[in-house]
Design a protein that fits this description.
By secondary structure, this protein is α/β, with parallel strands linked by helices. Helix content is 28%, strand content 25%. It is built from seven helices and ten strands. Strands 1, 2, 3, 4, 5, 6, 7, 8, 9 and 10 form a ten-stranded mixed sheet that branches. The longest helix is centred in the first third of the chain and has 12 residues.
């Protein structure tokens, strides 16, 4: 049996990009996928988009939350997979992502978390480039946080549980960096030398607008 992979997508008023994010996960047809979408009570067309995929989602909800980390914690509490990750609603996976991720974790039991090469999309969903940005715990200790690309990181549930099994909701930003800092206490990060995901830059990214 293939490893079960659980993906959580948090979203709030990202209807312009949400469907592309969802289909980038579902269209891979990975046989052991658990996919969860957590919407923060959007006022745009997000709910309509989510309902289009109702029968293919393992669980979804649309209700107010207290921020990005809260939405993710809500989703991860529903997961049961051995491999975990989250994909923000304005980002996308590549068609080969889950197949590569599963193969790595199946073949190398010593690997507890991985990061692909950094990739990027423009506002229209066109791929605009990639690059390598290897990081380890010593970079973090020296304050060199930029960037372990969040959407390209996958980890084992065992590591998640050792690191506390939660995203810190006291952080408005860098919730991923906080989680990586905790992961580094228990395991080495392995770099996958291929692009498996990408960050969409569209001018209204949450971090750029300083939104919680």
């Amino acid at each position: 049996m293939p490893l079960k992979i659980s993906i959580v997508t948090p979203s709030f008023n990202q209807g312009a990009f949400l469907e592309e994010a969802i289909t980038s996960v579902l269209n891979q047809n990975y046989p052991a996928l658990e996919y969860i979408v957590v919407d923060g009570g959007s006022s745009d067309n997000s709910l309509e988009i989510i309902k289009k995929f109702d029968t293919r989602l393992s669980w979804w909800v649309s209700e107010p939350d207290t921020g990005h980390a809260n939405a993710l914690n809500k989703g991860f509490k529903r997961t049961t997979g051995e491999i975990l990750a989250w994909l923000n609603s304005d980002d996308k996976y590549f068609p080969w992502t889950l197949e590569i991720v599963a193969e790595i974790f199946e073949r190398f039991p010593e690997v507890e978390w991985i990061s692909g090469a950094n990739g990027g999309w423009d506002e229209k969903g066109r791929f605009i480039g990639s690059g390598y940005c290897p990081r380890n715990k010593f970079d973090f200790l020296l304050g060199h946080y930029r960037w372990i690309q969040q959407e390209s990181v996958f980890w084992r549930r065992s590591l998640w549980e050792k690191a506390g099994g939660f995203l810190d909701e006291t952080f408005a930003f860098m919730i991923d960096g906080n989680l990586w800092s905790r992961f580094f206490q228990f395991a080495e990060l392995y770099l996958v030398e291929t692009v498996i995901s990408g960050y969409r830059k569209h001018g209204s990214n949450r971090a750029e607008l300083n939104q919680k």
